Amino acid sequence: MSRGAIIAFSILGFIILVGLAIVGWWFGTYNKLVAYDQNVKQAWGEVQTQYQRRYDLIPNLVATVKGYAKHESDVFDKVAEAQANIGKVSMTLPSNVIDNPQEFKRFEEAQTGLGNALSRLLAITVAYPNLKSDQNFLALQSQLEGTENRIAVARMRFNEAVQSYNTLVQEMPGSIVASASGYHTRPYFESVQAAAKAPKVKF
Predict the structure, then answer these.
(1) Is residue 15 part of a domain?
(2) Using one digit for the tens of pLDDT, what is the confidence trace for 80-131?
(3) What domain range is 186 assigned to?
(4) Which run of H or of E encompasses 22?
(5) Does a structural domain hold residue 11?
(6) How far apart are alpha carbons 82 and 98 in whole angstroms?
(7) What's the structural domain count of the chain?
């Protein structure tokens, strides 16, 4: 075999090795994107579960408070309005809400509105001594506070998952694979620390 043929085969072999390395890197990065994407979706599912848990607690909580504080109609109306808004937003949310910053923000604002309404509801209970000793109310309040804490943890974990995902999507050279594969950055929850403060009433 001539010297020229040997050089040609060497160059060809080098090109093949480089090509295999690039393909291996591409698929490795793509698989990592898929894994990080699944982590974000799993964290989002947990956020939704905890928000639904809170939503489901509200009817019994409101009914219990109403039994002692019938004249607080404005507060009850605010809670009902916030609940209705959650229902309306939930019905119109696209399935890819975590890929849509505007819809994601609309979801977050609706949940924040309900949280604020619940805080007002709990705040009025200090004026009703009998309510403060009602075992059903105390149990519901404890469940709500526990749920608010779980919401805060779920939001924090979601943000952590999104941060890892967004870093991979934005940093070179991973951004090349992300862009070519249709992966884009995702929005974060805001004010996670503030959300971690579960509604409480000091008796």
Answers:
(1) no
(2) 999 999 999 988 999 889 999 999 999 999 999 999 999 999 998 888 888 8
(3) 36-195
(4) helix 3-66
(5) no
(6) 22
(7) 1
